[in-house]
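Interim report to the steering committee. The following record documents the input for Xyloglucan endotransglucosylase/hydrolase (246 residues).
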Amino acid sequence: MVTLTLDNSSGSGASGFQSKDQFLFGEFSMEMKLVPGESAGTVATFYLTSEGDAHDEIDFEFLGNVSGEPYVMHTNVFAQGRGNREQEFYLWFDPTADFHNYTLLWNPHNIIWSVDGVPVRVFRNHEPAGVPYLSGQAMRVHGSLWNGESWATEGGRVKTNWSAAPFVTSYGGYASSACVVPASGGGGCPPNASSSPGDAGAWMGRQLGPEGVAWAREKYMIYDYCDDRWRFRQGPPAECNLDRLG
Ligand SMILES: *[C@@H]1O[C@H](CO)[C@@H](O)[C@H](O)[C@H]1NC(C)=O
């Protein structure tokens, strides 16, 4: 169990932690209880990232709000340095009242974001069609709480209310089944990282089609970069159309 605290005196405007190990594929789960009450401007995260310029990254970011208004769950994925793949959702529960489970599954087929076991987003490997995928860079697990008031709440119109500080997010129940990449090189996947569906450690073989996230998309999605015609005037990124075709 870890709590992250944000107040106006910490200088850096952020606090966080990261895993010692780095991984190439895995399933990572975190229980989180978000900043209650006044949380506008705060951003609590659970994400994987590699280092360097053309980095890979998979994000859960929770954008706070004024008391009583809903959090936004912001997701993104960077492949070889390119992100701009945001999808945003409201949650079907109050994420500040209790711990809930947020899981990132990353294997050679796809990346699946799940909330309390319900898949909300999938980013499929379309490398054969020329879309870069996250398959060559090891990543570490991170959690952080930072001041994102320039963009987080209602697009930055609502700022952090420091009179409500300190802001606290709790993390617990971390679990992973993943392929560790030692600094010395080598490494490999644990024996339970089976690629045959039905096995206990079947995360390595798990695949979801676009229909697998239909419930969350229909009921709770509030933004999908694939539908942002203003932003992508020449048409959406290639993976959007590939997924529409199934
Ligand atoms: C905050 O509340 C407003 C009003 O309900 C809503 O439009 C917005 O999506 C909420 N979340 C964030 C992060 O702005």
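The pocket of 2-acetamido-2-deoxy-beta-D-glucopyranose is lined by residues 63, 65, 69-70, 72, 152-154 (CB under 6 Å). The committee is asked to note this result when reviewing the revised timeline.
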